[in-house]
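Sequence and structure are kept together here, with a separate record for every protein. A complete record is shown below as an example:
=====
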Amino acid sequence: MNKYLPLSDNTPVLARPLTVGGTTYANRLVIQPMEGADGTAEGAPDTLCIRRYERFATGGAGLIWFEAVAVSHESRANPRQLWLHEKNTDDFARLVEKIRTTAQREGQPDPVIIMQATHSGRYSKPQPGVGFIPIVAYNNRLYEGDNPLPPERIITDDALQALEETYTDITRLAMRCGFDGIDVKACHRYLNSELFSAFERPGRYGGSLENRMRFFKNATDNARAVATPGFIVTSRMNIYDGVPHPHGFASEDDLSEPIHIIKSLNFDLINITMGNPYFNPEVNRPTHIDGVERMYRLTKVVKDALPGVAVIASAPTFLREESARLCAGAVESGYADMVGFGRMAFAYPTFARDILGSGFDKKQTCITCGKCSELMRGSRAGCVVRDKVYADLYRQMMAERGQ
């Protein structure tokens, strides 16, 4: 271990299976939910989305945490975000089956596939050619400044209660599609995550911690109420927003509230993240070694406080070819039980297969240039540097902008 991070050459530790709540993961490597902005107008997976998951399926990760899927049309983060509903379940089911058959054909483990169910909240942008149509938990002075959103943009208690019921429906649909579990998404300042910091909101969903976690608890309970035995109900959850109280949730020095939430909701698997990619992306996608150190230091605080919970750590990509040593060290030293890659999966979808086999290929590594996020804002997301399909899309986007 160096001064900042747990590093180890014992990468075989990542090949050990892990059993959590009756589900066995073939290894300790995860593909994190990376939105491709490449669904159809009706929310079904489109051609590039299918291509991406076929590539992931060849990669050997024990867990594919399927990207953000909206629970309603108005909650989509862009007009091409995936959105699961009654009319497109067959499209999702075909993709899930394709992931499994592709992995089998390539001699890779059958991955566990967990679907992320999202409500984009203040970052809802469902209509083409239109900006954000926010649905917020409260006016936040850090984001709104001197221009608060009108009252009709603040979701009411009754609307939140009705929205909780959608997690019953989305869980049933996810099971019908063949997913192994559902993520009640609570991160990155989307609606569920924003409610954690609703200290000054009146009513049933603001003020006390019990109120601020009410939506999360009820949505999770609703998902569990219809889940069949063995179906996973979990969350990718912010443990720290990276902004000061009362504008954000938790702090580096005090993670008591996120730890209480995880414990009280009886999760046996939790996917840890932090920050807001729209406001402080360096927190959840570190651009400096100090950001990586913070991610792993705080993840270990959660792991130490909840030894019975399997914890997934995030954000190793900044270390590039050294990231495999961080994954190994994190598992070996008890910082986490599994480690997930986001940006790296776009650039290098077979990272897990190589880490567990011939070794990490630095010629395929993500260089953390940020162009995948830039591309997503104007087109479809993918690695501009390592994948010609997205390099061509990037050039086309820049040409359309006259750049």
The chain has a mean pLDDT of 96. The first strand starts at residue 18 and ends at 20.
